[in-house]
TrEMBL record:
Keywords: DNA-binding, Transcription, Transcription regulation. It comes from Azospirillum oryzae. Residues 6-75 form the HTH merR-type domain. This is DNA-binding transcriptional regulator, MerR family. It holds the Pfam family MerR-DNA-bind. PROSITE patterns: HTH_MERR_1, HTH_MERR_2. PANTHER family: HEAVY METAL-DEPENDENT TRANSCRIPTIONAL REGULATOR HI_0293-RELATED (PTHR30204:SF94), REDOX-CYCLING DRUG-SENSING TRANSCRIPTIONAL ACTIVATOR SOXR (PTHR30204). GO terms for molecular function: DNA binding; DNA-binding transcription factor activity. Gene3D superfamilies: 1.10.1660.10. It comes from the Bacteria. The lineage of its organism: Bacteria, Pseudomonadati, Pseudomonadota, Alphaproteobacteria, Rhodospirillales. The keyword DNA-binding applies.
Length: 143
């Protein structure tokens, strides 16, 4: 059985909840350093890889894009530096999330209004079809 400091890719996947192909992908794009190989050419990971992969996974769960994660990892590798840039990245991400939420709320309002306005009679008088055919029937310009 592998020790805490020498994990196979399968053991790393189990400890972090990240699938093996994803681990290989993160290595290929440089988010996760390429693992040293054993004499039988198997990847060998240490606790640092576990921690880094958990960081990446959590950042992905929070919706950060790969490039932002790359920058955040660079900052995490230098704990003495100021966190202004990390804060800026997080604030930018938050603004993007809030923008998406606003668009989704507008979308929900439009579809709700469309559905509630439908008499469910015949297609010729169907409010759903009418709204989809002419954007002028919408409340919002963008959704």
């Amino acid at each position: 059985m592998p020790t805490m400091s020498s994990l196979t890719i399968g053991a790393l996947a189990k400890r972090t909840g990240v699938k093996i192909p994803t681990i290989r992908y993160y290595e290929s794009i440089g988010l996760l350093p390429e693992a040293p190989r054993t004499g039988s050419n198997r990847r060998s990971y240490d606790d640092g890889a576990v921690n880094r992969l958990r960081f990446i996974r959590h950042a992905r769960e929070l919706g950060f894009e790969v490039e932002a994660i790359r920058q955040l990892l660079t900052m995490a590798d230098d704990p003495g530096r100021p966190c202004r840039e990390a804060d800026r990245l997080a604030r930018t991400h938050l603004a993007e999330i809030e923008s998406r939420i606003a668009r989704l709320e507008a979308l929900r309002d439009e579809v709700r209004r469309m559905v509630e306005g439908c008499a469910q009679d015949q297609v010729r008088s169907c409010h759903v079809i009418e709204v989809l055919a002419d954007h002028a029937h919408c409340l919002h310009d963008r959704h």
